[in-house]
Amino acid sequence: MTDAIVAEGLVKRYGSVVALNGLDLKVPEGTIMGLLGPNGAGKTTAVRVFTTLLDADEGSARVAGLDVRKQANELRKSIGLSGQYAAVDDNLTGFENLDMVGRLYHLGRVRSRERARELLARFDLEDAADRPVKGYSGGMRRRLDLAGALVAKPSVLFLDEPTTGLDPRSRLGMWDVIEELVKGGTTLLLTTQYLEEADRLADQIAVIDHGKVIAEGTADQLKDQVGGERLELSVATPAELGTARSTLADLAVGAMESDERQHHLTVPVAGGSAVLMEAIRRLDGESVKVLDIGLRRPTLDDVFLALTGHHAEGDDKK
Amino acid sequence: MKLLQALADGSVVAKRNLIKIKRVPDLLVFSTAAPIMFVLLFAYVFGGSIDIPGMDYREFLMAGIFAQTVLFGATITGSGLAEDITKGIIDRFRSLPMARSAVLVGRTTSDLVNNALVIVIMMVTGLIVGWRIRSSPLEALAGVALLLLFAYAFSWAMAWIGLLVRSPEVFNNASFIFIFPITYIANTFVQSERLPAVLRHIAEWNPVSAVTAAARELFGNTSPLSPPPDVWPLQHPVLASLGWVVIFLLIFVPLANYQYKRAVAR
Ligand SMILES: Nc1ncnc2c1ncn2[C@@H]1O[C@H](COP(=O)(O)OP(=O)(O)OP(=O)(O)O)[C@@H](O)[C@H]1O
Ligand SMILES: [Mg+2]
């Protein structure tokens, strides 16, 4: 399989801020790559380099086989972009926005109009089609912007945080749309701060922090990389939390994490239910009253914590 | 082929800008309200104390008003571009396979159309207060065309400054700093011969004086009693205006394009 996106050693500096610090990335044709990272990780900067909006200081990138710097004009014909902030014109109607984009992709007058109507229908914007975008809700603008990225049926699509700012219902709707889109063979690079979003949509995930890919693989591979399962338990008092910590210390295969306020302990373990039994036995022996205990597979948040030493900020806020 | 494509792209962007003028008519209202005020102020308040030998002041005034109006109209190019580049829409444009020049060509073209509309309104205003065209219709048409051409060239200068300051508010304040002197240290409202020596020299060589004098000539609003001007641009105002247009375009089209690339690549 050929790669639709290839980046090698991309560096981009803004004064003393290093937005990209040697970013390497490969996205095979027809797959979805999730670029996952906290605020300021460099996701948007990477997308801007891939979509010819920004020249990197060092390194090179090819998209759809074309060099983003030297063949920018040619490349723009085969990419679609929906940036982090909706790039729609407030004074135009939804229809006029898409029609304009079609004309600038050189689809011709007739085809541009047809395509605009088609996309408005597909994104559930038919009723609002002839109203100025000024009066659209956030979700409607977002959908219109996504429609704008699809006007020319691009072979490589870039979506920068497509669901940020959407309510949960709109987010689910957007996920469905995106999943349907890539069934058609489009390559998609998607950035997100939401771990569950990357988990749900992406074939491959690249975790990026401080302008660099720090881990890469499928959601499952990343979880395995962090090792086994998580033993989670809650107790009634802070004192018992301390006891539980010391009692279970030698079962842990990684750093334990305790939440003092919730009296909650997370222990990375290996060995499945046998470890769970052993833990319960030990806690019973120390007379620790366990309110709740269980095993779970690591989430991407655990991945993040293990890789960067801090939680993914998008999830922290919840 | 490439040129045709670029022009087509420019016209798509121009159409987008014109839709804005239609949806937000304040812009048009404000770009005509001020000059109409000026007409009333000078025709009825100051006009009585300004004496132009051999002709009515209102006839003298209107060409100056037209020049002022299209110059102010051309400043919209600067604030419009400054506004555009702070918005997400410019990223959309830049990710599309359209001509690089289309944003600037579209902007200057739509402002030209806007100015054409404004000048028609101002001519009607002029006719109402007593201004008359005393030349042939063809000459009058040439006068309008020359004013618009001059404004078009000037709007490339405004484009450059708008992209330099990158904020519509800053642009609006900054543009007054030079728009005022070049509009008023000129023959727009008074005869330049009447100005004190230093200002008089500036006024005589001011491009705005040339275009105002050209418009007066083409509309037939000249006085037989005025002394013949003693500097070349005012002796041949039409030629001088065209010369200024060429100079402006040669300087500011490349500068604006260069600044556009710098302003967006961040
Ligand atoms: N135009 C700019 N000027 C100066 N610094 C910038 C600019 N654009 C980005 N940066 C800096 O580069 C770093 C990476 O920014 P980037 O927007 O790529 O992050 P991100 O991963 O998209 O973050 P977010 O999740 O907040 O969108 C940040 O530290 C940011 O402050
Ligand atoms: Mg971002």
UniProtKB/TrEMBL annotation, chain A:
Keywords: Antibiotic resistance, ATP-binding, Cell membrane, Membrane, Nucleotide-binding, Translocase, Transport. Its main location: membrane. InterPro entries: AAA+_ATPase, ABC_transporter-like_ATP-bd, ABC_transporter-like_CS, ABC_transporter_ATP-binding, DrrA, P-loop_NTPase. It is a peripheral membrane protein. Residues 5-235 form the ABC transporter domain. It is found in: Cell membrane. GO terms for molecular function: ATP binding. Belongs to the ABC transporter superfamily. Drug exporter-1 (DrugE1) (TC 3.A.1.105) family. This is ATP-binding cassette domain-containing protein. It comes from Lentzea indica.
